[in-house]
Amino acid sequence: MLIAGPDTRVVELRVHGVQGTTPQTLVDAVAAVDVAGDGLGRIVRPADRLRRPAPGPVLQTEGRPIPRVVEGYLWGGMTSGGVAKATWALLFPFSIANVAHWMLPPVPERNLPAHLLGIGLRSLLRVFALLLTALLIAQISVVSLDLLAAQCLRPGTACLTSIPDDMRAFPWFRTFLGLLPILVVIAVMRRVSHVDWRIERKEIADAEDKDQQPSSGLPGAHVATDPDTPALRTLHVVAALAVAALIALGGPLKQLTASGGMGVAITVAWIAALVLIGVSVLGVLLLDDPTGGAPHRGGRWLRVALGRTPRRVLLVLSGLLVLTTLGLQEQLPLRVPGSDVAVQVVALLMAFVLVLFGVLLVPAALLARKTWASLPRELRPWAGGWFSAPVLAIAGLLGGGFGAGVALPVRKALGEGLQLPVGYDYITLLWGVAGALGLLSTLAVVSFTGAVRWRAFRKGKVWAREASLLHSGRMRDLRTATRAWWWARWERNHGHHMILIIASVLVVGAVLATVLRVRNVPLATWTVPFSAFGVGVLGLLAVSLLRAVYLAARQPESGRRLGIIADIAQFWPREAHPIVPPCYALKVVPELVSRVQDHLRDPGTRVVLCGHSQGSLLVAVAAARLLEELPPHDRERIGLLTAGSQLQWAYPRAFPAVVPHASLARLAGGLDGRWRSLCRGTDPLGGAVMTWRRQVFDGMLLGVGYRPDGSEGALAPALRGPTGALVLGGDHWLPDPQRGPFPGRRWRSGVSAHSDYTSDPEWDRAVAIAAGLLDVDAPESPPLPFARRPETRSRDALGGS
């Protein structure tokens, strides 16, 4: 531990979690001002009455008070605020497919079968993502080309009577009106895929652009920009334009018929559309081949074939194909059969790819099992490393459901006489069966959970022995905490099971509907209630998303709440699907690293990175980058503090290849005891980070966890801090409700759960330990004085004294 000198000061750099926050809340001040940043990534400090940056409260250590500067990094503007960002929620299926890529199991080194399986899985993910884009275009074609242009605007109909028959009969009017919404959606998707966060400082951008191999063994080492993203973006746009043209020309199985030169032209355009779709599929299959990414390997031709000039040629050709399609259809037919066929063909291809992906994922997870076989069960990946498959299934089914959910209300709004494709009857049946199974599953889960909880509390079973230590002598707080501990533990342990249940009920409904449709079985009368229920479920799905976008435009607070979806999904760079919002981690992490390096230029400054919830993942990746870049004497002046973090129970288990357990151990060893984690048993979203296998024995809290040298093993019994917190290894277990109030400190009554960790006085002590100014193994500090006298008697059955 470095000795504090007379010029020592501590910079506490805080990063918030999901949903964003205000600058004042982040730095615990009544006013805050920006001191750096570009408006999207803002660095703020507390302010005085003249709106000038003010110093933070001093940090009390065993020797003397140390000056402290409190800064906060605000990144919420990258994911919420404004209609443009709110509409990203409509791309949620694309984002889920992209997240599924990062959930793949790790590939063991020097294992050829695992390496080949990894290539195959990543390629199948990209093909599935391309089909997801094609499905969206096909479903928009059902609404714009078939419902609106072909049926509603046909001359002589009573639909939209404000448009006269002369205009309806005008050549190319209906065809243009039917293709226009499709082209607008494609243009918007292309625009979204081009949006990226700019790093203002040139030296940071230059460092990020260097072609360096990512350092292995630390959290988030693979979170980087994919060089194949521009090519992948172009292939998706080309495929979308080609699918639109193919549907207008008759569909993927049969072209429109015409005589003479018109028939030849339609045939040529139809074949050209198929060729462009084939080129797109082949491109996404090969893009993830590592030999194509290395200039000195045999696949360098792929880089040349998908360079800037060839990509522009493909875009021009696909655009000309759509214009040619418009010119070939002076008047649309009475129906556009290609839209129904396209939806069904794309859906069947997605199902085939998904099944193949799930089958290949089984041996890949088994081969990767040796990387986590030695870990206890609570630290192993969810579903044995197979969690990517159900997540991908949810992405595909949500994508199909949203399109159908939009088509059904549009048909009802335009008129009851309009007809949807036959395949949509089976889609409503799918969601009706899935919705019914979902209700039954929810009822079963709620009933079982309630019964287990009632039985446990009636028999006096102790679910949270740690709570009896934290709230010893406070019967009322112990009773409240025990209930909160039970529910929080249940949510952490079974949250992923709920996702598996959702995926299962959707897949069951999809299998039933697919079998009936492939065998062309007419729907029986018993399916009518399920189809009606499915119409309601699909309508609710579409209306909920569209209403969320509308509220985001009228009420910014709603847009911030909607940002929860983006905050979780947008951490991951574009990999499987390029038409997703940009990854904010690629901007936040390098700017955090640069800010820390700026502070470390002062030899007396020590910096503690503090992250809450999702911010804990950001500061962990930033700390890992700092350990890679800083010289040894500067590494000793950085510390890490996480609060309400998912770095043990969620991220290593959902993303075992990106944030593996071993990477957290290496990070803990690199920080040499300067990684502290604040956790509450009442927090359903956060949990312990540094310890596991905890148990209470003979009035002591014991457990296994990370040691300062990075090794893992049994830890010394937990020490009690001056405010009642139990410190086991690097985890600080906070009593919730707090044991105060304490004189001169901010007080928060009741159960805090996942919020307001900075209100606990243990925060300052953890910052001092992370800064290397306080030894956690020091003799027990005297408790702080209470503003009110605590209870000294307890009648609670859980062991409080």
TrEMBL record:
<feature type="region of interest" description="Disordered">
    <location>
        <begin position="776"/>
        <end position="801"/>
    </location>
</feature>
<keyword id="KW-1133">Transmembrane helix</keyword>
<dbReference type="InterPro" id="IPR029058">
    <property type="entry name" value="AB_hydrolase_fold"/>
</dbReference>
<feature type="transmembrane region" description="Helical">
    <location>
        <begin position="235"/>
        <end position="253"/>
    </location>
</feature>
<protein>
    <recommendedName>
        <fullName>Lipase (Class 3)</fullName>
    </recommendedName>
</protein>
<feature type="transmembrane region" description="Helical">
    <location>
        <begin position="389"/>
        <end position="408"/>
    </location>
</feature>
<feature type="transmembrane region" description="Helical">
    <location>
        <begin position="313"/>
        <end position="329"/>
    </location>
</feature>
<feature type="transmembrane region" description="Helical">
    <location>
        <begin position="428"/>
        <end position="452"/>
    </location>
</feature>
<feature type="transmembrane region" description="Helical">
    <location>
        <begin position="498"/>
        <end position="518"/>
    </location>
</feature>
<feature type="transmembrane region" description="Helical">
    <location>
        <begin position="341"/>
        <end position="368"/>
    </location>
</feature>
<feature type="transmembrane region" description="Helical">
    <location>
        <begin position="265"/>
        <end position="287"/>
    </location>
</feature>
<feature type="compositionally biased region" description="Basic and acidic residues">
    <location>
        <begin position="788"/>
        <end position="801"/>
    </location>
</feature>
<keyword id="KW-0472">Membrane</keyword>
<feature type="transmembrane region" description="Helical">
    <location>
        <begin position="530"/>
        <end position="553"/>
    </location>
</feature>
<feature type="transmembrane region" description="Helical">
    <location>
        <begin position="169"/>
        <end position="189"/>
    </location>
</feature>
<keyword id="KW-0812">Transmembrane</keyword>
<feature type="transmembrane region" description="Helical">
    <location>
        <begin position="124"/>
        <end position="149"/>
    </location>
</feature>
